[in-house]
């Protein structure tokens, strides 16, 4: 196993602490000697979890785990009918230990930190990354430092970071500024960076792709739709599919389809314009705080994932996100935070525009749990009805 620059293809040992290519600043990928790995469905006999796929994960020694992965893949008949899709599934990543897919990345990232002998881990976060880093650092007995954009982190996520004992710094700036600062902090070498620029973290997240195919009976769906913020997850899931193809487990790679919020859509903009690079958005804004990111670090990987898979990118409004959140909750019993609902909102829009065919097998990834952001729920749902403690009054209201 080694690190490879996605631009100049220079390689580096996996024991080196680097986050970009020292030669050209390109992003890094973890590459294995695939010919030496036995990865066959019939050999993967462990119960569903990230670590079921250990032959293709970059950890040899001690693993820090709290049973991440193994999330349900729901078949969603009512939502499929409403949107006009033949076969629709929702992969509910909100059912991970801390309520988001970030746990898949952090179980691998923090295990790698221990292997590298690191004592302090750090990240910038819109919330979920900090919750996840805090819990895995706690389990590992190391220190987590998290930088959060002040006033823009959902309550549930902040509560997790605080309770699991991270050093929580509230930065007077947005995510992009916090991310710039944490990179500077980590360049000194005292802190190990676990944002999604870290290629080991993404190795954990690629197991979403493995699990989808596994749960469909080792068959690939036609398309995977997910929200895109810093763009690590779409890149990771794509890499997972590429590896399954290398091992002849799937023939075709699902069309990777990324959805962004209207005022935070640099990747979807670049895709629609056919531009090579993104133009960062300086003041990103959206109800979906988990994807409120203007300068996504993994944009080059994400654009490749979308283009190489014949996928797409779409832009949705906050209203469309909230509507999809309610539809998931009320048609399918799937409670998600706003960012997650962007996947379903984007899919609906692509079908309405005729950009994609309803005769597909599609998986939407819902990335985080409803309880992450209770304040948003109170804003978008009807208030509870105040009634006297009296049976007649109650009957009168329910008429
Ligand atoms: C982190 C996160 C995203 C965005 O994922 P990226 O890898 O940054 O694109 C989307 N939804 C939720 C709930 C998240 O926590
Ligand atoms: Zn390079």
At CATH level 2, the architecture of the largest domain is 3-Layer(aba) Sandwich
Please, what is the average pLDDT?
97
Treating each run of at least 4 consecutive H or I residues as one helix, how many helices?
14
Q: Structural class of the helices, strands and pairings?
A: alpha/beta
User: If strands are numbered along the chain, what order do they take across the biggest sheet?
Assistant: 4-5-13-10-11-12
CATH topology of the largest domain, what is it called?
Rossmann fold
Largest sheet features: 6 strands, mixed
For the termini, the CA-CA separation is: 66 Å
Rg estimate, integer Å: 21 Å
List the uncertain runs: none
Give helix % range.
25-40%
Ligands, deduplicated: pyridoxal-5'-phosphate, zinc ion
Task: Kindly give the count of domains.
Answer: 3
Overall morphology = globular
Can you tell me the CATH class of the largest domain? Alpha Beta
Number of strands: 13
Can you describe what's shown?
The protein is α/β, with parallel strands linked by helices. The chain folds into three domains: 1-31, no CATH class; 73-99 and 201-380, Rossmann fold; 101-197, Rossmann fold (3-Layer(aba) Sandwich). The chain is built from 14 helices and 13 strands. The strands form three sheets. The chain has a six-stranded mixed beta sheet with strand order 4-5-13-10-11-12, sandwiched between helices. Strands 8-7-6-9 form a four-stranded parallel beta sheet, with helices on both faces. A three-stranded antiparallel beta sheet has the order 2-1-3. Helix 4 (155-163) links the parallel strand 7 (143-149) and strand 8 (167-171). Helix 2 crosses helix 6, helix 7 packs across helix 8 and helix 11 packs across helix 12. The termini are far apart. The model has no long low-confidence stretch (mean pLDDT 97). Residues 100, 102, 128, 196, 227-233, 290-291, 337, 339-340, 367-368 line the site of pyridoxal-5'-phosphate.
């Amino acid at each position: 196993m080694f690190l490879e620059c996605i631009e100049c293809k220079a390689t580096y040992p996996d024991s080196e602490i680097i986050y970009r290519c020292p030669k050209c600043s390109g992003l890094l990928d973890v590459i294995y000697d695939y010919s030496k790995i036995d990865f066959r469905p019939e050999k993967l006999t462990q119960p569903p979890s990230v670590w079921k796929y250990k032959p293709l994960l970059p950890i040899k020694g001690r693993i820090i785990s709290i049973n991440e992965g193994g999330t349900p893949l729901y078949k969603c008949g009512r939502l499929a009918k409403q949107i006009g899709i033949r076969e629709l599934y929702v992969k509910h990543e909100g059912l991970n230990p801390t309520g988001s897919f970030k746990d898949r990345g952090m179980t691998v990232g923090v295990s790698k930190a221990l292997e590298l002998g690191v004592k302090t881990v750090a990240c910038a976060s819109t919330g979920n990354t900090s919750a996840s880093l805090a819990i895995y650092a706690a389990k590992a007995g190391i220190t987590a430092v998290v930088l959060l954009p002040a006033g823009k982190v959902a309550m549930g996520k902040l509560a997790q970071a605080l309770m699991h004992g991270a050093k929580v710094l509230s930065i007077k700036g947005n995510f992009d500024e916090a991310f710039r600062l944490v990179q500077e902090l980590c360049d000194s070498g005292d802190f190990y960076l676990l944002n999604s620029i870290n290629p080991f973290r993404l190795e954990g997240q690629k197991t979403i792709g493995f699990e989808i195919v596994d749960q469909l009976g080792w068959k690939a769906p036609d398309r995977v739709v997910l929200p895109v913020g810093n763009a690590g997850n779409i890149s990771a899931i794509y890499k997972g599919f590429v590896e399954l193809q290398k091992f002849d487990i799937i023939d075709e790679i699902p069309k990777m389809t990324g959805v962004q919020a209207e005022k935070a859509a640099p990747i979807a903009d670049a895709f629609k314009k056919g531009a090579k690079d993104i133009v960062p958005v300086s003041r990103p804004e959206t109800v979906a705080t988990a994807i409120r990111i203007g300068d996504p670090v993994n944009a080059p990987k994400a654009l490749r994932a979308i283009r190489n898979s014949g996928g797409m990118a779409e832009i949705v409004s906050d209203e469309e996100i909230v509507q999809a959140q309610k539809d998931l909750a009320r048609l399918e019993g799937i409670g998600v935070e706003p960012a997650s609902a962007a996947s379903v909102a984007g899919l609906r829009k692509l079908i309405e525009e005729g950009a994609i065919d309803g005769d597909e097998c599609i998986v939407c990834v819902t990335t985080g749990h409803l309880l992450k952001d209770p304040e948003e729920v109170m804003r978008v749902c009807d208030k509870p009805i105040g009634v006297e403690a009296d049976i007649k009054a109650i009957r009168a209201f329910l008429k």
